[in-house]
Design a protein that fits this description.
The structure is a single chain. This protein has 199 residues and is mostly helical. The protein has one domain: Arp2/3 complex 21 kDa subunit ARPC3 (Orthogonal Bundle). The chain has 7 helices and no strands. The termini are far apart.
Length: 199
């Protein structure tokens, strides 16, 4: 975070806190839903728990943004009383690592819809690794494991990556992100496009 500007740190903290509160509410909602459809069926809810990573990374566009955002949001969920307890924070670390990998693969140069969705998918895969470590490899039957992983990956892609882009693009239209990297790059592209068109 050495090359982060103070406004970027402040925004990351605000967004992480907001996401952490959403995570807590989502965790509370998970209890009745998992009772209705079972823990495997409730896997469709997974993606919301990784949305902090693509949201913050998409706006700030710096190495470590996805990881820091997810750990911070998970920490907020923990201290505000998540029934998942310490595992809320620990799985957040794993999910944050997974999300970060997606941006690292492209050298932190691509923040398009594909990369955001990939971050949600990777967060699901690495998060599942935590579940295996925490619960033991015998916890899942092969069929249940792949069904759970599949639902988590799909949910991570849609409720994590795709929804993150929708949320940030909507925020960008309000003008609140004018001073951040996302809008600087957008303006640069528009200027380049204008120059090309004017030739």
């Amino acid at each position: 975070m050495m090359d982060w500007k103070m406004k970027e740190v402040v925004l990351a903290v605000i967004l992480a806190v907001a996401c952490g509160v959403i995570y807590l509410g989502w965790s509370t909602l998970w209890i009745p839903i998992s009772a209705l459809v079972g823990p495997v069926g409730a896997g469709f809810m997974f993606g919301i728990w990784v949305i902090a990573s693509p949201i913050v990374a998409y706006i700030i566009r710096k190495p470590g943004a996805a990881l820091i955002a997810e750990i911070s949001a998970a920490a907020v969920e923990l201290v505000t009383g998540s029934h998942f307890g310490l595992s809320a924070l620990l799985v957040g670390v794993f999910q944050g690592i997974g999300a970060e990998i997606a941006f690292a693969i492209f050298g932190y140069k691509h923040y398009n819809l594909f990369t955001l969705m990939l971050s949600g998918a990777f967060a699901a895969v690495v998060g599942m690794l935590y579940n295996l470590i925490a619960n033991g490899f015998s916890y899942y039957t092969t069929e249940v494991f792949f069904m759970t992983l599949g639902l988590h990956v799909i949910s991570g892609i849609l409720l994590g990556g795709w929804l993150a882009k929708v949320v940030v693009d909507a925020l960008a239209k309000t003008g609140v992100l004018e001073q951040y990297e996302i809008m600087k790059i957008k303006r640069k592209r528009e200027n380049n496009h204008g120059n090309v068109s004017g030739v």
